[in-house]
Amino acid sequence: MAIMRYAEALNAALREAMTADPSVFLFGEDVADYGGVFKVSRGLREAFGDRVRDTPISEQTLAAMAVSASMTGLRPVLEIMYADFMPLTLDALVNQASVYGYVWGDEITLPFVIRTQGGGGLGTGAQHAKSLDSFVAHIPGLKVVAPVTPADAKGLLLAAIQDPHPVIVLEHKRLYNTRAEVPDDQGPVPLGRARVARDGSDVSLIATSRMVVEAEAAADRLAESGISAEVLDLRTLRPLDVEAIVRSVAKTRHAVVINEDWGFCGYAAELSATIMEHAFDDLDAPVERVATRDMPIPFAESLETAVIPDADVITAAALRALA
Amino acid sequence: MTPKPALPHNSPSIDEHLEMHRRMVVTRELERQLGALHKAGVTRGPIHRCDGQEAVGVGATGALEDRDCVTTTHRGHAVYIGKGLAPRRILAEILGRETGYNGGRAGHMLIGSPVHGMMGGNAIVGASIPAATGMALSAQVLGEDRIALATFGDGAAQTGICHESMNIAALWKLPVVFLLEHNEYGLTAHASTQSSVADLYIRAAGHGMPGEQIDGNDVVAVFQAVARAAARARRGDGPSLIEARTYRMEGFSTSDVGGYQSDEDLARWRARDPITLSRAVLVEALGEDRVMDVERAAAETVAAAAEAAQADPPPHFVPHAPSDPRAFATEGR
To answer: Which keywords belong to this entry (chain A) (predicted)?
Structure first.
């Protein structure tokens, strides 16, 4: 068991996957010589040579190349530096990968991965702080994961690379330097399985990505008032672990759904609808939704914190659900 | 046009030329059948015919190996035929039948047959370009002896992904051929309203790769140019841009009411019909009887295919497990 940073765990997954399978290919802006702007691919160029490439700033084409290269035997892992740049890749995802994965049936597989990172809180401004989870989780044929712990960062990325379908890995800029134990033999974490981050009995805080960290902080505060909050880390946004959600809500009878993307038409709305469809009879109160305010992310710290939810907002939502 | 001297090893044999001629006739007959079926109300949705442009798709694929990957546009019937796909199964797909190449899921614009290296019609204008570039990347990284060829139009040449792909392909010396099928129109808009330059092959210089303009209605010229570019790609010397000049004789699609193409242009290009040009050369070399026999057989093949495909059953709906947004909801995810 080693203590690893989240970024190091991702690096370990890439190194392991590239060692095991010569068809794994890593490309993206600044990923080779510099090792990635978040240092996730540090040392890989030296280890794997031309299988790790710096690219021009051409996200639209790079994503389309990942799709078609994966149709013809490669396992490309593309880094898109910020989730805010993901809209440039959407044609490749929604009109290429999604479409050909269906219309050509079993004649092809699409084993590519796009890694990106989103989220605010570091003063990066309106074009570098968004979480556009809903954009990708909306697309049939894609899988979407959002690891929170270093162990899951390694395990989910390994599973993503091995999967025969496209997987989008949503990392978070405020998680890269977090540290935790990663088992030495940490293997792939199955896609589509949530994780109970904290057991509880009064209210379910169902969260994604770094909002799990805020939900855990909220659970600490609620515990001070004698409220037992369960924190469910979804880990995979698509396909969604509906059973884990239903199991938790059946136990606590109160639900707060939390996602750092915008609220309107956003991922949290899907979670709320899922609970309505599958666990309505278990609820003692309406589902509370926590998401980023529906507006661009402002720069100044006092403004940014007013827009992106945190433990205070989640605590207040839980208390409303329990009122 | 820039006339290029034909290099002997890049020229098709007379038998290869006759086979390309046959495939052009198959394609033309296919388009005519589709036109008639559309008028009869048998088809669904728009169909984009390539009448008059057959030499580009057929000549290009004639110069490739079976294992080479080709991507094409929403107007790709000549490429499907050139890559060796069977008219019966193409027509069945276009008519939405279970026996179609893609079980009726794709329709005429998205037909793919990976075993033939036919890696897709693509109805997002420009998308065939990065698609072929990515297939060339996989060949390079995996060390496989195959190349990729993208066909795309003068409209697609104006997209950002066209320039991005050409830059990356030239930067990494990817084994890809960019075949620009210039038919003068993007839907109803003439190329002169879409491009700052009339000759598009000159853009190759800006990406540090060879570019040439050829007569896209001369199937032998297309074969020769693609054979040169393919040989360069196979050597590891990187991509090439070929601008094949041709003309779209029919409307953008079967829903196009027309009226924007001049009679003079249509008459001028009709006189340069690729099948007429090819036939003249072949009749000279092989005699009229042999060429006419081949054309008759080609027409009969397509007529029989159309009749058989119409009698084929429609597909039954089956849910698509990998598209399912919920885990555990279906087997076999």
So the answer is: Oxidoreductase, Pyruvate, Thiamine pyrophosphate
Find the residue in A nearest to B69 (Cα): A72
The CATH homologous superfamily for domain B8-310 is Thiamin diphosphate (ThDP)-binding fold, Pyr/PP domains (3.40.50.970)
| pTM, entire model | 0.96
Strands A236-238, A195-198: parallel, antiparallel or unpaired by DSSP?
A: unpaired
Q: Which amino acid is at B212?
A: E
Rounded Cα distance, A271 and A292, in Å: 15
* DSSP 8-state class, residue A225: T
Q: Does B69 touch chain A (CB under 8 A)?
A: yes
pLDDT in tens, A101-110: 999 988 999 9
Structure tokens at A276: 């309505």
Class of CATH domain A195-322: alpha beta
Distance (Å, rounded) from C-alpha A234 to C-alpha A238? 9
Residue A291: helix, strand or coil by DSSP?
strand
Q: What is the pLDDT of residues A269-303, one digit of tens each?
A: 999 999 999 999 999 999 999 999 999 999 999 99
Backbone angles phi and psi of A95, in degrees to 5: -105, -15
Q: Are A261 and A133 in contact (CB under 8 A)?
A: yes
Give A97's DSSP letter. Answer: I
| A239/B69 touch (CB, cutoff 8 Å), yes or no | no
CA distance A236 to A253: 23
Q: Tokens 């605590």 — which residue?
A: A315
Neighboring chain B residues of A191 at a CB cutoff of 8 Å? 327
Contact A254, A203 (CB under 8 A): yes
Domain A2-182: CATH superfamily, name plus number = Thiamin diphosphate (ThDP)-binding fold, Pyr/PP domains (3.40.50.970)
Judged by phi (left if over 0) then psi (alpha if -120 to 50, else beta), residue B52 lies in left
- φ/ψ of B325, rounded to 5, equals -80, -10
ipTM (interface pTM): 0.96
Exposure string of A30-67, with b = 16+ CB inside 10 Å and e = fewer, is bbbeebbbbbbbbebbeebeebbbebeebbbbbbbbbb
